[in-house]
Each structure stands twice: as C-alpha cells, then as structure tokens.
Amino acid sequence: MGGPSVKPYQPINVWESVAMKGSNTRHYKPDSGSKLYRRSLYTFWKRTAPHPSMEILNAPSREVSCVRREQTNTPLQAFVVMNDPQFVESSRQLAAHALLNCKEKPTILQFIAARLLNRELTTREIEIVNQTLDFSYAKFKAAPRQSHSAHLSRRIQSTSRTRPSSTCGLDTHRQPNPQYG
C-alpha cells in the first residue's frame, strides 16, 4: 500500500468553479499511461469537489470512517457505469481478455462472471445475458463502421486478435463521454 494518488478522468473544468484563483489544484489534469490505472484507493480527491463518479456511486465522506456502505441503484448510477471512461475502458479490457482466453460463448460468459461476481451464472442469468449479448452483436454487426469507430475511440489500444464487433458486443458500451478529460 502507498504510493502517489491517481488522477482519473473527470469532467473537463470540474474544479474551476470551486478553486481559488491562485490554487495549485485549480486546473485538473488527469494522469496518463500506467499512472492512470492505479487502484481508486489512491484517488486524488479535492475536498471541495470530490470525484464525480465516486460521489454518484455513494462513496462515503472522508470525515468519518465507514464500516458498511449503503446500497443504492439509481438511473444516474447506471448512467455513470455506462458512460464514465473508467468503466468503458474496464469493460472493454474485460471483453478483450475474455475473448483471448475463451473460445465458446458459454465459457466467455462464465469467465466474465467469475471475474465480476466471483461465481458462476445461473441458468436464468445465462438466458438474460445471452439475449442482451445477441441484441448487442446484432446491433454492431448491422453497423460495422460504427462498431469499428467505437472500438478505435477507446483510450486503451486493443489487441490485434480481437474483432471490434466482438468486444463492442461484449462490453455493450458506447464511446466514452467527450465531457471527460
């Protein structure tokens, strides 16, 4: 444990409205390269403007300790998970990793479930995921140019062995939101 804090993606000019003119943290510049992918335990956090995604996902305040986090599920949280560049990149990398390690759709789904849920999917869950996945594949196969564009717009470079329509179908995300730096 330890080391410098990560400065993840945040909306452009997020700190400008709460910073004093002479502040050394007035202009937020996200990290790049390997620095960007440290654990969020080390996220650089401005007291007057906490990281927006952490705030929306109910990160506890830092004034007191927190034994158990509250559980919520709001449309705004779903929006963040579907559009925040950190989540988009993570899902894209997970999809690429699953495709490189598994050949058949059932094993791909269980591979992803093992990493996200630490368990296998139930029969009913597999049915639901298959329907969603089939819908996503059909959507991206119908518009291969859009699929390729979404694939290339991601900040993490893909491996040459994954097809854009495959990872776009598996991660079911759109392009990262341009409001993030």
TrEMBL record:
Top-rank taxon of the source lineage equals Bacteria
Annotated membrane-spanning segments are none
Domain DUF1553 positions? 1-132
User: Per the record, which residues fall in region Disordered?
Assistant: 146-181
Q: Which InterPro entries match?
A: DUF1553
* PANTHER family xref list: CYCLOINULO-OLIGOSACCHARIDE FRUCTANOTRANSFERASE-RELATED, F-BOX DOMAIN-CONTAINING PROTEIN
Q: Supply the name of the protein.
A: DUF1553 domain-containing protein
The taxonomy runs:
Bacteria, Pseudomonadati, Verrucomicrobiota, Verrucomicrobiia, Verrucomicrobiales
